[in-house]
């Protein structure tokens, strides 16, 4: 099964469906399945991107392993042959696009790290001279590299709602100072290591977001990590401050949606076939660049 918009297993119970991922409860663990759905501006689009789920899942697996020296993660196994018995009839569909994970309690803060000024951060800077309350030097250009990466948390929204940018002080109010500082320090360390590695592969990671959970009193990394869905990836070969950059993520889709005149409210419009094909190719290229493997 090359592409799936939804994991429709009549014999299994779907406990949560996110914008991209479907989650099944096995009792002692969760099975997280990454579909080929694509969301933009917090709306799930009607078209699927072939093999996108496999790419996202495998990139996360790659990065989770890379970051184990910094923080533990929720993966139990990605080998479908080791999955619980109830998933055995579906191994072909689940292969490469799923992971069996520990049941952690998600923390209600999304951890955003910005190494370059772009997107909403650039818009905020132009209007107010700061990003999420963090004052920045005057005279920055669009896509400039920041002197130090910024930790700019947001409160995690319910499905379909927009996450809300919050200050670090507000994050402290939500989860306490010790946990907030731990999330900040972990996020910055993961970003630094990932960005340095990616640069050796000709990729700039401009910004990204992480999610963490608690398990047995310990903070661990959950969900996804440094994927084209959660990060802004730029080719370093044509990076030039002062303009928007070419990208390896879903920015191409966002740009097409904006040019289409869509008002960013559900339902999303159908994508042209060439946009679908280019996006699928882009996701595969980022995976190959990072890992040296093919999907």
UniProtKB/TrEMBL annotation:
GO terms for molecular function: ATP binding; phosphoribosylaminoimidazolesuccinocarboxamide synthase activity. PROSITE patterns: SAICAR_SYNTHETASE_1, SAICAR_SYNTHETASE_2. Transmembrane segments: none annotated. GO terms for cellular component: cytoplasm. Keywords: ATP-binding, Ligase, Nucleotide-binding, Purine biosynthesis. Pathway: Purine metabolism; IMP biosynthesis via de novo pathway; 5-amino-1-(5-phospho-D-ribosyl)imidazole-4-carboxamide from 5-amino-1-(5-phospho-D-ribosyl)imidazole-4-carboxylate: step 1/2. InterPro entries: SAICAR_synt/ADE2_N, SAICAR_synth, SAICAR_synthetase_CS. It comes from the Bacteria. Residues 15-266 form the SAICAR synthetase/ADE2 N-terminal domain. CDD domains: SAICAR_synt_Sc. Pfam families: SAICAR_synt. Coiled coil: none annotated. Gene3D superfamilies: ATP-grasp fold, B domain, Phosphorylase Kinase, domain 1. It catalyses: 5-amino-1-(5-phospho-D-ribosyl)imidazole-4-carboxylate + L-aspartate + ATP = (2S)-2-[5-amino-1-(5-phospho-beta-D-ribosyl)imidazole-4-carboxamido]succinate + ADP + phosphate + 2 H(+). One of its GO terms (biological process) is 'de novo' IMP biosynthetic process. Its EC number is 6.3.2.6. NCBIfam families: PRK13961.1, purC. Belongs to the SAICAR synthetase family. This is Phosphoribosylaminoimidazole-succinocarboxamide synthase. The gene is purC.
């Amino acid at each position: 099964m090359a592409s799936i918009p939804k994991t429709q297993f009549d014999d299994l119970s779907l406990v949560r469906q996110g914008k991209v991922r479907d989650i099944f409860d096995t009792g002692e663990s969760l099975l997280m399945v990454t579909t080929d759905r694509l969301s933009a501006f917090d709306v799930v689009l009607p078209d699927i991107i072939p093999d996108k789920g496999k790419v996202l899942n495998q990139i996360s697996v790659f990065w989770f392993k890379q970051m184990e020296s910094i923080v533990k993660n929720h993966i139990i196994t990605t080998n479908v042959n080791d999955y619980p018995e109830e998933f055995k009839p579906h191994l072909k569909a689940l292969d490469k696009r799923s992971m069996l994970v520990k049941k952690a309690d998600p923390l209600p803060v999304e951890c955003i790290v910005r190494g370059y000024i772009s997107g909403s951060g650039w818009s905020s800077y132009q209007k107010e001279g700061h990003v999420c309350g963090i004052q920045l030097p005057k005279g920055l250009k669009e896509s400039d590299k920041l002197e130090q990466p910024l930790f700019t948390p947001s409160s995690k929204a319910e499905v379909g709602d927009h996450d809300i940018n919050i200050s670090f002080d507000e994050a402290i109010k939500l989860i306490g100072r010790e946990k907030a500082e731990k999330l900040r320090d972990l996020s910055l360390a993961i970003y630094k290591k990932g960005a340095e590695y990616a640069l050796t592969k000709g990729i700039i990671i401009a910004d990204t977001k992480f999610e963490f959970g608690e398990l047995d009193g310990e903070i661990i990394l959950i969900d996804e990590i440094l994927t084209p869905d959660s990060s802004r990836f730029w080719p370093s070969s044509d990076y030039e401050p002062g303009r928007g950059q070419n990208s390896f993520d879903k920015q191409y889709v966002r740009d097409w949606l904006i040019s289409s005149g869509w008002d960013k409210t559900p339902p999303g419009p159908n994508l042209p076939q060439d946009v679908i094909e280019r996006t699928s190719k882009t996701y595969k290229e980022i995976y190959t660049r990072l890992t040296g493997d093919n999907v």
